[in-house]
Design brief:
3-stranded parallel β-sheet; globular; 440 residues; Rossmann fold; 3 domains; alpha/beta; Nucleotidyltransferase, domain 5
Length: 440
């Protein structure tokens, strides 16, 4: 592993042309430990916004008479010389150094934010304080330059361990991908993927999916009994965390159950806090399981789809006294085409952004069951790269397709077998426009 220098700047704002640096911190290190560090307060020559002082914990009087920005940044530039610079969300730091004339234009910073997105795509957040808390390393003073730089050091070493703990076949593919390139991200993975796994218990970026125990119960048929499931005496009252009896929710649930029993249309308007999701999900699941009638739930956005699939339905699967199958179905372009992906993977990387995207997809494909782009949490140019690997009807080989290798086919087959299918309005209306065929 080369010698790295983790750096962080605290500033009065986000615009290098107008704002000023108030603190500089940096830590040089290898796998053996810290080799050097520096910390400097900077007098910005102007008042510092109160929110910045509160965020950093720096007092205005500490900055008065401190060194100049020019001196501190020149010192930092000298500290970085001969070392690989690394930062977290480091673009802003580089912009401030560049504006001050103290950034080596031939250098490229290694960003632990990018590495975390590659190796830990499912993390709830990739912010430095939350990653520190999630991974269990110290950051005593968040938003202080030296502490943030040292947290970045700890994060890089932890991500190196994560990479070393990956599956051997995956590591082989990643090593082949980075081998032709000299960008910092390529050098990082060339080192990390060949390092010994320091601890076989390290939780790698590839997640294990938990097993769900099947239940043999059958839902009631009577709408009143279905509504009672969510009532104060029902089984969900004791099972739902923070259960609160809501009469409007029960009224909506009963109305949905009744209309599903007798047929017809129902239009419901309910305010925030009613508990609308459970009010339509519980009777819909009961009807689907009891009568073998597939129910389609359509939402306005993918965000609400993810909420239903990631929170509401897993909760109901745990709490309801019967089992059910639910799946998420999206438009074709939301799924990766392995055929297009292999073609893109075989092409030389245009730049380091392209390489990072390919590494991210390689890791993701090793664990995904759905092939759904939402799991990747794409950022910036990744949207452009995704368009090159997304499933496309113009690129589909039709009857020659090996369907078991197609995520679109898998998603539609899963929908065919589901009791409840979650879609969004765009897919629902597209299906109606062509006279069916997109939905089961």
């Amino acid at each position: 592993m080369p010698e790295y220098a983790a750096l962080d700047l605290e500033t009065t704002g986000l615009d290098p042309a107008r704002d000023r640096v108030i603190e500089v911190g940096a830590v040089a290190f290898t796998t053996e430990g810290v080799t050097a560090s520096m910390e400097r307060l900077v007098d910005p020559g102007r008042s510092v916004p109160e929110p910045v002082l509160r965020l950093t914990g720096i007092k205005a009087e500490e900055l008065r008479g401190a060194g100049t920005e020019e001196t501190a940044l020149a010192e930092l530039a000298e500290f970085l010389r001969g070392r690989q610079p690394v930062g977290h969300g480091a673009r802003l730091d580089v912009d401030f150094l560049t504006a001050a004339g103290h950034w080596d234009e031939t250098a490229e910073i290694l960003d632990t934010l990018d590495l975390a997105r590659i190796l830990m795509p499912a993390a709830p957040s990739h912010s430095l304080p939350l990653l520190a808390a999630d991974l269990g390393f110290s950051q005593p003073r968040p938003h202080r330059a030296l502490d943030d730089a040292d947290a970045t050091r700890q994060l890089l070493l932890r991500l190196r361990d994560e990479a070393a703990a990956l599956d051997e076949n995956l590591k082989e593919s990643m090593l082949a991908l980075v081998a032709p390139y000299a960008w910092p991200v390529a050098r990082f993975f060339a080192d990390a993927l060949t390092a010994a796994n320091p601890d076989s218990t390290v939780t790698s970026a590839v997640r294990i999916h938990t097993h769900h125990e099947a239940k043999s119960g059958l839902p009631p048929d009577d709408p009143d009994l279905v509504a009672a499931l969510l009532g104060p005496e029902g089984p969900l009252a004791g099972a739902l965390p923070g259960y609160e009896h809501r009469e409007p929710q029960l009224q909506m649930l009963l109305a949905v159950a009744q209309i599903q029993a007798r047929g017809g249309s129902l239009l419901v308007e309910a305010g925030t806090g009613t508990g609308k999701s459970l009010a339509y999900l519980v009777p819909s699941i009961a009807r689907a399981v009891r009568h073998g009638e597939r129910v389609v739930v359509s939402t306005d956005t993918h965000t609400l789809q993810e909420q239903l699939m990631g929170k509401d339905l897993p909760g109901l699967r745990e709490w309801l006294p019967w089992d059910f199958k639910a799946c998420l179905l999206k438009g074709r372009s939301n799924y990766v085409s392995l055929r297009r992906w292999r073609r893109h993977l075989s092409e030389p990387c245009q730049d380091s952004d392209d390489l990072r995207f390919k590494l991210k997809v390689l890791v993701w494909l090793h664990s995904t069951e759905s092939g759904d782009r939402s799991e990747l949490r794409l950022h910036g140019r990744e949207e452009v790269f995704w368009a090159r690997i997304a499933s496309d009807p113009m690129d589909c080989v039709g009857i020659h397709c090996t369907k078991e290798d197609c995520y679109v086919h898998r998603a539609r087959a899963e929908a065919e077998a589901a009791d409840l299918v979650v879609v969004n309005h765009a897919l629902l209306l597209a299906d109606a426009e062509i006279g069916g065929g997109l939905l089961p």
